[in-house]
């Protein structure tokens, strides 16, 4: 009789310690995060979220003009070329509609000219883009213009193709 009573008590205790299955989740609703899942190594894992429609950040979408960040200039010039205006417009409209975003515009020059001349030319290129973005609705507090002069060439050759690549202003968004 004692053996039976002890056995029944043990079975009752084991049954009380057994885990209960999670409550069912209604279809279409995310699972309750109150009991976050824990992996085998003890780290908390994040639930898989439903797809947000596959939208990419327009700044990172290769099909969007905003993914292009360099505005090119003619030799010894600092006015925004007509073929670069659409790109400047796209960045200006984006900044105007996203006042929390900011950019640093880095002006660059090719290796021809003195160091001082190229610093000044890079600054003028950056300022030209800054002014164009401002006209398009970007706030002054969103814009910073700096010059790299010839110090950050993208192409290292000594030919016209390399010079063309290095005559530019780069639009760098905060956090990049």
From TrEMBL:
Signal peptide residue numbers: 1-23
Q: Compositionally biased, Polar residues: which spans?
A: 36-48
Which PROSITE patterns would you find in this protein's record? Answer: OMPA_2, PROKAR_LIPOPROTEIN
Q: Where is the composition biased (Basic and acidic residues)?
A: 149-170
Give the region (Disordered) as residue ranges. Answer: 19-62, 140-176
Any idea where the OmpA-like domain is?
60-176
- Any single GO BP term: cell division
Q: Where in the cell is it found?
A: Cell outer membrane
Q: Superkingdom of the source?
A: Bacteria
The UniProt entry, under Pfam families, shows: OmpA
Per the record, membrane topology reads:
Lipid-anchor
Q: Principal place where this protein is found?
A: membrane
Q: Which UniProt keywords apply?
A: Cell cycle, Cell division, Cell outer membrane, Lipoprotein, Membrane, Palmitate, Signal
- Segments passing through the bilayer: none
Q: Name one GO cellular component term.
A: cell outer membrane
| NCBIfam families referenced in this protein's UniProt entry, alphabetically | Pal_lipo
Q: Describe, as the record does, how this protein assembles with itself and its partners.
A: The Tol-Pal system is composed of five core proteins: the inner membrane proteins TolA, TolQ and TolR, the periplasmic protein TolB and the outer membrane protein Pal. They form a network linking the inner and outer membranes and the peptidoglycan layer.
Task: Identify its protein family.
Answer: Belongs to the Pal lipoprotein family.
Q: What job does the chain carry out?
A: Part of the Tol-Pal system, which plays a role in outer membrane invagination during cell division and is important for maintaining outer membrane integrity.
- Could you tell me what this protein is called? Peptidoglycan-associated lipoprotein
Species source reads Chitinimonas arctica
**Gene name of the encoded protein:** pal
């Amino acid at each position: 009789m004692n053996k039976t009573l002890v056995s029944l008590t043990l079975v009752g205790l084991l049954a009380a310690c057994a885990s209960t299955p999670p409550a069912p989740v209604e279809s279409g609703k995310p699972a309750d995060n109150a009991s976050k899942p824990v992996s085998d190594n003890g780290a908390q894992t994040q639930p898989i979220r439903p797809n947000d429609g596959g939208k990419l950040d327009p700044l990172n979408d290769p099909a969007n003009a905003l993914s292009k960040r360099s505005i090119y200039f003619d030799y010894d010039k600092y006015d925004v070329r007509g073929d670069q205006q659409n790109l400047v417009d796209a960045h200006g409209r984006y900044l105007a509609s996203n006042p929390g975003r900011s950019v640093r515009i880095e002006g660059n020059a090719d290796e021809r000219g003195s160091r001082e001349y190229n610093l000044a030319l890079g600054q003028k290129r950056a300022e030209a883009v800054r002014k164009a973005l401002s006209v398009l609705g970007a706030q002054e507090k969103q814009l910073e213009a700096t010059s790299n002069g010839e110090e950050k060439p993208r192409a290292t050759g000594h030919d016209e193709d390399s010079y063309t690549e290095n005559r530019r202003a780069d639009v760098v968004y905060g956090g990049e």
